[in-house]
Design a protein that fits this description.
Elements: E1 13-22, H1 26-38, E2 44-47, H2 67-76, H3 80-86, E3 88-89, E4 93-97, E5 109-111, E6 121-122, H4 125-138, E7 142-144, E8 147-153, E9 161-167, E10 170-181, H5 188-193, E11 196-197, E12 203-211, H6 223-226, E13 238-243, E14 246-252, E15 257-265, H7 277-287, H8 289-296, E16 302-308, E17 314-315, E18 319-320, E19 324-326, H9 341-360, H10 366-384, H11 399-420, H12 427-432, H13 434-457, E20 468-470, H14 475-482, H15 490-518, H16 525-531, H17 539-542
Helix pairs in contact: 1-4, 1-9, 2-9, 7-8, 9-10, 11-13, 11-15, 13-15, 15-16
Length: 550
Amino acid sequence: MNQRDRDPSPAAAATRTDVLVLGGGLAGLTLALQLRGQDPALSIAVVERKPHPLREAAHKVGESTVEIGAHYFAEVLGLREHLETEQIRKFGFRFFFSDGREDVDRCTELGVSRLLPTPSWQIDRGRFENHLGVRAREAGIDFRDGATVRAIALGRDGARHVVEVERAGETGRIEADWVVDASGRAGLLKRRLGLAEGNDHDVNAVWWRVDGIVDPNDWSGDAGWRSRCTPPDRWRSTNHMCGPGYWFWLIPLASGAHSLGIVCDAKMHPLETMNTHAKAMDWLRRHQPRVAASLDAAGHRLLDFLFLRHFSYGCRQVFSADRWALTGEAGLFLDPFYSPGSDFIAIANTFVCDLIAKDRAGSPVAPYADIYEKMYFSFYENTLTLYQDQYPLFGDAQVMPVKVIWDYTYYWSLLAPLYFSGRLTDIPTLGRLRGAFAEARALNLAMQPLLRAWGERNLGAPPPQARLLDQFGIEWFRELNRALGDRDGDDAFVARLAANVERMRWLAGEILSRARAAHPDIDGAALDALLAGHAPPPASLAAPWYADAA
């Protein structure tokens, strides 16, 4: 979307709506549908630059969902039937530590041998957004595709916002009580209000799509290796091919294409070495030769190619008492490694819906906008620690599987159950959980530097013996995933999250012990201080963990 920094023309014809959403992509259309489900009387307009229908395998990031985003699409928005019949059920994350290797079947593999209980999906964004657009129009939402925002005037002190929109050669004004920017990286309101904010996570990405599905099982003739998974469908995973300073993704799309991308630390792998398709393929031939050989084979016609420099960023403000908000990439963006994009859309949209509901009920918006923004930025900052300065250890087949287990445990212990339970805006319960969130945050802030130091000390060491690290075989880990769907009363819910933090303490102690066994001089003082005085956990929380499930 292009937005000119001028006021809307008073001569243009005007229409009125309760909520105007700028951007009809994933964030904007899901917000509109969530608002409609919350309040059937609400008038909603969505303005989207691209005409519908989109082509399938549309060139957009955010094709792999994880638990929060998947739950948002399937249950909050009621899209499970579409996901089950028109998209691909995801076979979890899968990681191969295969830098420079042809024999991927002789490398360490981390993933699940069977589907975990809580589902997620691989999303063909073109197909999905076309479905969302149809659903929006069926729900009575004024969805204007092929339209361009030409000017924005934000109202103050209760005055309506005015946006000038051009469509099919005609210009009109839309007056709205609320305006929500879901325009992606165009960031219409962010630019208008000077809200852009960088971060220190210096990473780049290139990505492209090809015809045809890339099946990792084709990389080996070893029947035992191929049958480690039940069903033997590694291709349905979000496959991460990992090496020092980078990872390469393979995501299947229901339209019969495959999404591919290199994400890398800018200092270790300069963007200039991969910013064309030819360069990216040369890079793959050096770092992931088995993948490159698959893509060089017939049947994988190139569909598109794009690159982004320093793609991660923050934002100074996302929710305002003046009845405007930002959602999705119009606000902030983390990193695609654990696919958090749809999670943060779900969280932001839920906050926006609650703010609008409170406003329409006559409640003051300002205090809640402030609380929700602090929470949202806290989720962003805590999640950023999983990625920032951690890329150098991505190729470490000893430390990186430990990090993945830790990062999943952190996610499934607090933020994911908070969202699944519908308590994201439950202020009294959030108050009761403040201590649990603070302790988990402190444990994570101490853990990430320990993992980084462990990886630094491993440089030059031979890789561990190749094996499948089966996350499905870790009973407590599988139970954490299953329990996301539990529906507890308030007291039981608070107790469950407290037990989750207790498990995090135990896991932190286990990781610290293993790091010190490998490197006795490693500094674990920060974790020692957090673990001091805590009794050992009950046996039901303690074992096994990943090494025992190898």
